[in-house]
Design goal:
mainly alpha; single chain
Length: 253
């Protein structure tokens, strides 16, 4: 067991003197080892200093390049893409409100008009921007309204968002497309994903209802019952809650 030695300690006998010499020898050996390690490290640094400086320089250049790219390329690109998105979005909104010219307005939203970009142009020209991501969503919904379901699925799958409403609507839109393509298993999968994406008064009962109807058509009555009962328990005041008892009765039979 190590013993603390006060400064000026003098051994009283040969045993203590031997112990002191052993302690001093061990200490000297430790410092000698540290000195050797330090010397080896210093020698290695000197030998590889060009390499080390090169790595540091490369990292510094990489950081500066990233900052420059973000400031002088990405930010202006984001701003330009956002401005371009304004025009096709107007056509899209007009199509939703129109009673007669829906298809032509949706087509203008996709392809652009009067020298202005459409959703497809923005996706291609401004890839990697937030506006291009939003254009994927709008293009998907446009194709869904035009009954071009494969294209709708492709664009909605490319859209990514944590937003409670848009994220759920995109997944539910894919479910609608699969439903129209007579692929109920895939439709149910995406309706369930839409429900799981977020819990809110708008999309959750909407896609619970659709999931329940598809499950009922697939003779998965127990699963359908669970969806319908959740609507009754949690969203009874939603549009989907009206008449939900009739669907519960169908699922129970």
């Amino acid at each position: 067991m190590a013993t603390y030695k006060k400064r000026g300690f003098k051994p009283k006998n040969k045993a203590e003197e031997a112990q002191q010499e052993e302690h001093d020898s061990t200490t000297a050996e430790v410092f000698n080892t540290l000195d050797q390690s330090a010397s080896k490290t210093e020698a290695w640094v000197q030998k590889n200093q060009n390499y080390i400086l090169g790595v540091i320089g490369a990292v510094a250049i990489g950081v500066l390049a990233f900052l420059a790219y973000h400031q002088f390329i990405q930010k202006p690109k984001e701003a330009s893409a956002a401005n371009e998105l304004f025009y096709p979005q107007q056509y899209f909104d007009q199509a939703l409100a129109s009673e007669t010219a829906k298809d032509s307005l949706f087509t203008l939203a996709l392809n652009g008009a009067e020298g202005k970009y459409g959703f497809l142009d923005i996706i291609e020209e401004y890839s990697g921007t937030k506006a291009a991501n939003l254009a994927e969503y709008s293009a998907g919904m446009t194709y869904l309204n035009l009954q071009q379901y494969d294209e709708a699925i492709s664009h909605l799958e490319n859209f990514s968002s944590d937003d409670a409403i848009m994220g759920a609507m995109a997944k539910g839109g894919i479910g609608d497309a699969f439903s129209q393509l007579n692929q109920p298993e895939d439709a149910l999968e995406y309706y369930e994903k839409a429900v799981a994406h977020s819990d809110n008064e708008f999309t959750t009962p909407r896609f619970l209802y659709k999931a329940g109807v598809v499950a009922l058509e697939m003779e998965q009555k127990e699963k359908a019952l669970g969806y319908f009962e959740r609507i009754k328990e949690d969203y009874s005041k939603s549009p989907e809650g009206i008449g939900i008892d009739a669907l519960i009765g169908l699922a129970q039979n």
